[in-house]
């Protein structure tokens, strides 16, 4: 008789248990987002509406407002969480999120330029935001020299420092552009810059869902190469990996995830920055699926809190995420610089 297999250690089950808990929490938050608000929606009526029944007074609230908002929040948080974790893992630095290194502001600058000079909205806004994010990433690669092999740690730190400088310059550019707008246009742009889910529609949810349907499989194909890249550029090159191509491909996926989401929701501050480190702390190791789930939880919680916890005042989700992220950023800045996300 063979001896029974030893039980799996608790640590090996931890990521799976955390993932299940995150999935259940997401499901609960979607339900809360649909039911809670002014007016409250009874669960049985919400289920009837979702099932296709027309319920006067509730069909519009559920199907045209709250449910698409919940879906957009779920998808946007997923995209931001993945984008931030790609940058943090690739650059071996928890500060290297799109919020900090300028990619989010690059997308925002592209969108503000579109609004200021072309009165663009809808699909055109997506393309301008994507172009702004891509141009920012190209600038970072050129100035920081992040595309080629070499002293990985120095290049990665240089990428982050250059990104912080680029973010400051882009912030100044956006401020200047806002002074060139009419009062109404500037107000619209400022509202969008805060980051809000108030304009969520099924069409916007479809844009995010389509992008994720393409980019998540692409990321899944790149993750094994990213793991090799974490061994160091010299080791990765000796194993036959094309370091420049892999870096550029990963950055391209991260930028598109970030830029398209910014075009839909505006720059929801610090979601990309928070998701990866929180997921790593919960699971005990870096996890892209869990980072996506944590990003979605953050956005849903921020939207629910902003809509319901401040009396008659409804705050955009970006205000809540910014309030959460700022102290976390200060805490990260006081940590040892060697405590990177990808280690």
UniProtKB/TrEMBL annotation:
Pfam families: FecCD
Membrane topology per record: Multi-pass membrane protein
Domain of life: Bacteria
Gene Ontology terms for molecular function: transmembrane transporter activity
Subcellular location: Cell membrane
Transmembrane segments: 16-36, 67-88, 100-118, 125-147, 159-178, 205-228, 248-276, 288-309, 315-333
Keywords for the protein's UniProt record, in alphabetical order: Cell membrane, Membrane, Transmembrane, Transmembrane helix, Transport
Database matches in InterPro entries: ABC_BtuC-like, ABC_transptr_permease_BtuC
One GO term describing the cellular component: plasma membrane
Major subcellular site: membrane
PANTHER family according to UniProt: FERRIC ENTEROBACTIN TRANSPORT SYSTEM PERMEASE PROTEIN, FERRIC ENTEROBACTIN TRANSPORT SYSTEM PERMEASE PROTEIN FEPG
Family: Belongs to the binding-protein-dependent transport system permease family. FecCD subfamily.
Name assigned to this protein: Enterobactin ABC transporter permease
């Amino acid at each position: 008789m063979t001896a029974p297999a030893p039980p799996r250690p608790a640590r090996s089950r931890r990521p799976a248990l955390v993932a299940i808990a995150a999935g259940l929490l997401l499901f609960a938050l979607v339900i809360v987002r649909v039911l809670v608000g002014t007016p409250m929606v009874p669960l049985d009526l919400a289920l009837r509406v979702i099932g296709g029944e027309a319920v006067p007074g509730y069909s519009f609230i559920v199907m045209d407002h709250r449910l698409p908002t919940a879906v957009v929040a779920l998808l946007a948080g997923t995209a931001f969480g993945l984008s931030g974790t790609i940058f943090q893992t690739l650059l071996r630095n928890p500060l290297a999120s799109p919020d900090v290194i300028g990619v989010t502001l690059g997308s925002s600058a592209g969108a503000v330029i579109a609004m200021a000079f072309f009165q663009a909205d809808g699909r055109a806004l997506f393309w301008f935001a994507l172009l702004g994010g891509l141009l920012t990433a190209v600038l970072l690669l050129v100035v920081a020299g992040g595309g080629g092999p070499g002293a990985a740690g120095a290049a990665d730190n240089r990428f982050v420092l250059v990104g912080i400088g680029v973010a400051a310059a882009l912030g100044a550019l956006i401020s200047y552009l806002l002074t060139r707008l009419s009062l109404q246009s500037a107000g619209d742009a400022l509202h969008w810059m805060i980051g809000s889910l108030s304009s969520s529609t099924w069409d916007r949810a479809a844009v995010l869902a389509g992008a994720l349907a393409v980019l998540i499989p692409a990321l899944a194909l790149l993750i094994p190469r990213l793991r090799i890249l974490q061994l160091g550029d010299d080791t990765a090159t000796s194993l036959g990996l094309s370091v420049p191509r892999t870096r550029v491909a990963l950055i391209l996926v991260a930028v598109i995830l970030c830029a398209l989401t910014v075009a839909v929701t505006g720059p929801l501050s610090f979601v990309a920055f928070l998701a990866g480190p929180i997921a790593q702390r919960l699971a005990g190791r870096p996890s892209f699926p869990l980072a996506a789930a944590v990003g979605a939880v953050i956005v849903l919680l921020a939207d629910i809190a902003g809509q319901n916890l401040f009396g008659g005042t409804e705050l955009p989700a970006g205000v809540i995420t910014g309030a959460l992220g700022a102290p976390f950023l200060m805490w990260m800045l006081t940590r040892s610089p060697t405590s990177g996300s990808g280690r």
